[in-house]
Structures are given as C-alpha cells and as structure tokens.
Amino acid sequence: MKKKTILSTLALAIFFIGYNQLTSNPLGAPAGYSGSPADGQTCANCHGGSAVEVNNVLTSDVPTTGYVPGTNYTITVAITGASTRKGFQVSPQNSSGVLMGTLTAGTGNKVVNSKYVTHTAPSTTNPGTWTFTWTAPAAGTGTVNFYGAFVSNKNNITKQVLTVNEQTSTGIETRLGENETFSTYPNPATGNMFLNLNLSAGSYVTASLVNLEGKQISTLFNDDLSAGKHHLQLDVNQIKTGVYFLQVTANGVTKHKKIMIQ
Q: Domains of the chain by range and CATH?
C-alpha cells in the first residue's frame, strides 16, 4: 500500500510539472521574468524551451514623434496561436532594472511589485489580447524600453523589446536673440506643455499666454535662469481650449509662438 501511495504521489507531481510547462501560469507570471537585462530570464525559465525574438506581440499608441512626459498611453499585448492558455509579462525598465514611468493594470491583467504587468488568467482566445496603461516618465528621461515575455505553449515562448523615444520638440525653433532660441511641445497641448530654452547669458525669463486679441491671460513661468539649455514644464490645465500665443521674454528680447490648447 505504501509503495502504491508513493507511486501515485510521484505520478501526480509529474502531471502538475508537465501541466505547468505546457500552459501559462493561471495566476500570472512571478516578478522578474520580463527578459530585461536586469531580470535575465523569461517565461522559458519556467516553461522550458527557449524564447524566440519577435516584433509583433507588443505595441503601443505612443506616436512616432515620441512620448510626452506625464501623458497616459495604451500598451497592447496580442499573442497568437492555437493554445487556449496564453500569458505574458511586460516591464518598462532601464538597463539597471529601474522602472521607467508608471503602470496601471487593465482588464484581465495586474501590476506586480509596481514594475511588472502580467495576466490574471490565461487567455483562451486567438489572439490572446490584453491592454494596460503606461504613464510616461519625467521630462529628460529619454528612450524607454518595454521588455516582454510571452507564452502560448511549451514550444512557443517568445520575447520582444519595444522601444519608445521621448518627444523633444515639435515645430521650428524660434530665435530670441542672436544666439538664443526656444521651442515648445506638444502642439496642440493638453495638461502640460514643455519649453526648451537655450540662453547665451543668464536672464530673468517670463513665459506667458496671450490671446489672439493681444491680452495676456496667464503667466506660466517667471524666474531667473542661468546661461545654457533649460527644459521647463508649463502647466496649462486651467487654460480654456483655443489658440494662443506663447510669449517668451529673456535678455530684453520678447518673441511669440502660436500654440493650441486642447
């Protein structure tokens, strides 16, 4: 009887190990399996086999001009295949494993340790699709890589790196003085806009919104700045939708740029 019990227990253990290798973890992948340089492992470390590089599973609605800091974007995972138990893990990280931006789970997925998004139940459809929200990081962060690992079955483990760039400028630079320029982005702007200044000398700088009738309606920035390049975030949350002029004054020179607030 004891021998039969041991054999039965062993057979059951083998069944569950094989089941885990053939299908996606029903509760989502544990943290640290995104395939990033810092994580160093993918779904293949649990399911067996090796992860194949792909480029069509992970997509985003970040425009080709780049992400705007603080803006929300939708990230989509779409895994194709006949298997009815698909799963994933995705994480936006730098090379040291530091989270870039903020993650918010969508339907059928969850955030683990604030840095990873994974399924809450394996997908039974083809393709298996999930979406979640990524809030872009602070200005000056630069390029962000999304690392993703995906499983359809034991013989279909894949991984992908989705790269998005930061939007650095839209429109043509406007010359302030002989050696000074400024540019703004995005245009149209929603919530926040950004002002890039290149000053040849230190100056007291003001940035104001002026309506089409020439009336100043809001001062967005006024402070002393040193010579060199500056990247300023301007809050336009309380500004009504419409077309305005951004008025910038530095070193005794004032220039205007037409912008739109949405």
A: 26-164 (2.60.40.4060), 170-261 (2.60.40.1930)
